[in-house]
Structure formats: C-alpha cells, structure tokens
Write the structure tokens for this entry.
Amino acid sequence: MSILVFVEIAEGKIKKTSIEAVAYATAMGGEVTALAMGDIDQSELAALGNYGATKVIHAGDSRLNDGVILAYANVITAAMKTSGANTLVLANSSLGGSVSAHVSIKMNASLVSNVVALPETSGDFKVKRSIYTGKAFATVVLNKANKILAIKKNAVEIKETGGTASVESFEADLSDHDFLTKITGVQKATGDVLLPEAEIVVSGGRGLKGPENWGIIEDLAKALGAATGCSKPVSDMDWRPHHEHVGQTGVKVSPSLYIAVGISGAIQHLAGVNSSKYIVVINKDEEAPFFKAADYGIVGDAFEVLPKLTEAIKAANQ
Amino acid sequence: MKILVCITHVPDTTSKIAFTDGDTKFDTTGVQYIIGPYDDYALARAVELKEQTEGSITVLNVGTAETEPTIRKALAIGADDAIRVNAEPTDSLFVAQQIANAVKKEGFDLILMGRESLDFNGGMVHGMVGELLGIPSVSPVMTLDMDGFTAKMTRETEGGKESIELDLPFVAGCQEPIAEWKIPNMRGIMSARSKPLNVIEPTGNDQGATLEKYELPAAKGAVKMVSADNVQELVDLLKNEAKIL
C-alpha cells in the first residue's frame, strides 16, 4: 500500500497535527510519502523521515505559500496520481477539511473526517470516527478503492523512527482557475499559544465575574505554557474574543490538560472539551455539573485558588 | 443574487446521545430537532444579504418527510421557497451530489451552509459541492460581505484568520459570528405555511462510506477532589499521576 500524507506548514515549521498524520500513516504500514507546499527549509522536510516518511515531495511554487483550497487540492491529486498512492492521510484542520473534500471528488475516493483510531483492514476497510462533537463514535466502512482519512488531533501517538527521508521537488500544472480565491491578509490570533492546537488550555467562565479579572487566568496559563479559552456566555458578553469560545459551536479542543475555572459545565461546553486527556474543574459551587466530567476538582473561590495554584506550578517548574 | 442555503435537521444541542437496534440507529426518544446551528448562521446571513441586495433565498434539505417542520422554520425566518430531496442523508458524498444536482438545475450564485452538521461533524459537504460544480469553496467563514459580484470574507484558521476576496459563484461553510440567529416573527410563521416546498426524489445512490456501528465513549472514572487549601496536592497529581507537568 502506498500512502500520501499532506503536511501543512505554519511559521516555517511542519505543524504538529501534520506530524501526527505522518505517524498515523506509518502505523498503518506501507510506503509513506509526504507532500508539502510553499516555502520551507529542506531540512524541515527531510526531518519527516524521523516519523516514518521515506520520501518527501515538495511543491515549492511560491503561489502555494497561501493555503488556497483549489490549488492545494489539485497539487495533492496530481501527487497521488504520480506516486500511485490510493490512500491520502492528512490532519483534520481548518484547511485540510476543505482540501480533502475537493480531492475526494477528483479521486472518486471515500473520505472520512475526525478519524480517532487506526483502521481495521482485515476484511472491509473500517475506521472509527468521532461524531456528535465527541459525545459518540461511529465505525464506518469505506466503500471506494481510493481512501482519504482526515485525522483528529491526538488520535495517534507520535513515535520517532530514526529514519531519514529523501526530498524531491514536485511541479503540478496550475491554472488561474486554481487561484480564484485571493487571500488578501492574515491576522494572527492574540496570545502566545494557539487554542486549537494547545497541549494545555485554561478556560474561564462567568464565575470570573468580569473581563477585568482575566489576569488570574492569564497568569496560570503563562505558568503552564497554556492557551486561554472561555465559555460561550463569556464570549457572547464580549468579555473575551470569539476565537476563545470553547464548545460545541466554538473551538473544539483536545489538549492533554483542560482547566476550567468558574464554568458550570453546560452540555454544549462539555462537547468542546470531551476529548481532553485530563480535566481539572475549579468552581465555587460543589453541585456544578462539570465536576462529573472532571478527573480532578477543587471546590473553592477562583480568586483565592488560582493565585495559589499559579505559584505552586511556578515552584514545581523550577 | 440567487442564494441557496442548505440546512440540516439535527438533534438539539442539549440532546442525550443514545443508540438502539444493536447500536446501529440513533435513539430519537424525547429528542427535539432543530436547524443545524451553523446552518442557522448561514441562513441568518443570507436573510441580511437579501435585504441589502435584490435577490431570493431557497433552502434545501436532504431528508425524509419528518424534516418538514424544520424546513418551514427556515421559511419563517426568511427563505422564499424550499426544496426537500426525499432521502435519508446517510453519507456526505450522497448529500453533496443531491445539492450539486439541484444547483445545476436551478442555478444559484451563492451557496451557503454550516461549516459542519451538528450530528456527524463531517465538514465535507461544502467542499464536495464546490468540486462537483467546478467552483471554489471556503470554510469556515466568519464574515461575508458582498461588493457587487465580489465577496469579502474572513476564514478562521488554527493560527487566526485570513481575509479573502472571491467572485461569485462559490460555496461557503459558515460559522459564528457571521450573523446573529434570527427568531421567526408571527408574520414569518404565517407566511411560511404558504411558501412553496418542493419535494424531489434523489438521483443516484453513490455512498462514500457506510455505517457499521455506533458506540458511546467509556464512562469517566470518579472525580478526585482536592481541598482548596492544598493546591500542592493538585500539582502533585498532575505531575505524578497524569504525568503532565
């Protein structure tokens, strides 16, 4: 089996979710070729060998520095045909979702998104995916010979293989039609750590009483190297920006650790955090439903508990 | 401008998720159905765009007769007419093909839908419809303004957002804060009863993937409570038990 993995680049580095996609493809077995687009250092690409890729193909056309969906879909399709890959693996990201949908039509492939485990291939090709915003799973059979798997974050453990990969440049025929979508600007989210990809998230809710009190959330997040999030009421009241809203209709996170402060735990909020590995809940109300979904809980006043916790973590880090 | 808004008919966000028939069917007992929340944002923005420019809004749903109250609600919110493709929406590819067929027949300038459905969260249909029609797709779209035939949009990415310019026609998968949800008023509800709701039969039955079974996540173990006066214990648990710090 020959597998192509589409890897995304951010700030000159391969994104961690894309490295997970390479690790996933390697764990499936077979020959793994990675495809990267736009400007990036050759050494970054060669390093994908350490996660199991034997070859990296690089479409270095500078028009591909922007994530233009149609152009990306065409390059991926051309790369699948050239490399003879019948399976495409990629991260289920903001860009990857749309790109994979276009490729699935071009390649007449079965596409499954939000994949959370390796496929079963003994009989039919089956894979498990998350549904109902992480409240359930579905095992589906992929009907077509060509297959695309868009992998959810943290679905697979990254293993270093110590291998190396050769890097080849790749050119696909691209037309003006592929660049109809013009990206005219990019605005970076505020905060040092990006919420959708964070390993640790500290979120605040209405229990914080007002936007002026967010310093204690930010201090704890800083001590942990965490991203900050919030509940829907908090973003609805404009205490915090919309892109921090964690929940069913906001950002879905899958960090190793999620710390919820002053959030009661409405079902819509839980849906956005239920694939976190560990959940800590800090709430004044011992009846808060969030405690039922938590691994560790503290009943107490956030304004007293948080500064103490931040100090204890700083001390532990030293 | 002719706008098509594709809507899903999904369990309310507070629904308890359970399965029946040997974990092969969703348990609908006591479940309230709504317009998919992301689709509802798309519809709200379509209504605003229609107020600003001359145009019409058609809503489309792939579903069986039981989705009609949901479609009528979309008509009450401000769509002019509706199409129901009479089939179970079992697969993204199948649904995308039904939408693309309707667009080819009727001709639309702008095709809006939610970034994903609230039940299966596939997030694929907008991209598939775009490719089937040979036009661009954009998702997840946070703002959308029209300037003649050119749309100015912002798209959310993991690292922030992008500003995008794109000429009609195209497909967009929408999310907040593109518009505020609209609550139908009495006049809208009355007029929705007489607006056209055309039922058409599906074309083809190409399915990309077939469901084998559903499952619920393993139950969470009991929460370990730590005293507010002893936060060090929490730090020790995170370090030694969870092995995170």
